[in-house]
Model the fold of this input.
Amino acid sequence: MPDQMISNSQIIGAYREKTPGSEKLSMEANEVLPSGIAHDSRYLKPYALYIDKADGPHKWDVDGNRYVDYFGGHGALLLGHCHPEVTEAVQSALGAGTQFGANHPREVEWANQVIKMVPSVERVRFTSSGTEATLMALRLSRSFTGKTKFIRFKTHFHGWHDHMTTGYANHFDGTATAGVLDNIASNVILVSPQDISEIKSVIASDDDIAAVIVEPTGSSFGMVPMGEEFLASVREITSANGILLIFDEVVTGFRCAPGGAQEAYGITPDLTTMAKILAGGLPGGAVGGRKEILEELDFEKTAERGREKIQHPGTFNANPVSATAGITALKIIETTDACQRANESASWLRDQFNKTFEEKNISWAAYGTFSGVHIFMNKGGIPLQPSNFDAAAIPYKELKNKDPQLVTKLRLAMAINGVDFNNSPGAQLSAVHTRDDLELTVGAFSEALDMLKCDGEL
Ligand SMILES: Cc1ncc(COP(=O)(O)O)c(C=O)c1O
Done:
């Protein structure tokens, strides 16, 4: 954002006035952390909030301001911050030791709980993050099929290891991003997330493809939606060609439904990657799937088959504290209407935002699937009616085409009005957002749009 734009903006002035403690910390952080941050999506101009406490659907910054939280721990907190049962279980797990350097009963219980809930999963291998889970899913696919290449959909995000960096935010031509080798990028084939004929023709002309990975509700939890029919076609073509299908359920798992998007859609992948909600708000990930594929990690089975086993250490895999948080959260999700509540709240919020756009004559739209809310900011000026908006009819480049300055100012204006909107921009709902939180959010959104008008942005 140009400096002059910052000094002339009433929104930025009001944000600075409200959050001096965050500004001070950001200056200190800039001296010790690149860009002052620990995760790219926490980068914000002039600086992001510093939070030091959270509870349920709320969090408080270091200046004591309360926000309704729509980051939800990057999607990990379907049950909100500090769910009492999860917190109590974690506290008692901490007292029993955080790292045994040994197998332990809770990893068995955790795996059983995942297998019980996620329809396609017969065996589980725990990791420490979603990135590690997609890395292992890729390695399992190559080892199991003996094939090399890997298909991804443009805009879909699967973590940050070397095979996942092209084509979700940039490098849509498949060229390697900074620090990644060309011959890794060249074994990743990027295809359109909206035109099924592209993946069909790639598969028809190449018999060296190990797997296809997909965010089953479309990229960034439905920002570029992927219809059920499209997904079913991907399942059909991969099965017909001996290619493994990986559902990346790091976000959608235990969220769209207790058994994830695969339960909601009734479509069965070969492998599933999980993280976030899986570990109940603590670090953790897993890859699960068909038994014979996971056996590529099994000492005896690979020896019997005369195959080399995939190596997989990892100091904190299935650590007992994450396992405890995960088991507790998953059992709550399995036995309550948590997913449904979050889905209903998101649907209500989308409707209210669209009414607001119509009242104010703004041709933006709120859309999304399940518990997600995305704001289409219509940079290209497409004629639309917010309440009838069909994101599937908009080209993915247009859905992703956002003015970073406008996104920033919308988020800052929401923060001034007590809401921490995510950087989609939009929201991931939890099961614990109340009607009061949602109403406050609709009011804040209306105020934020007025502030954007005053700042000359609308
Ligand atoms: C769909 C998807 N896959 C994988 C990942 C990577 O997970 P992690 O951040 O735990 O490495 C993310 C993270 O946001 C994600 O959204």
Summary: The radius of gyration is 22 Å. The first strand starts at residue 51 and ends at 55.
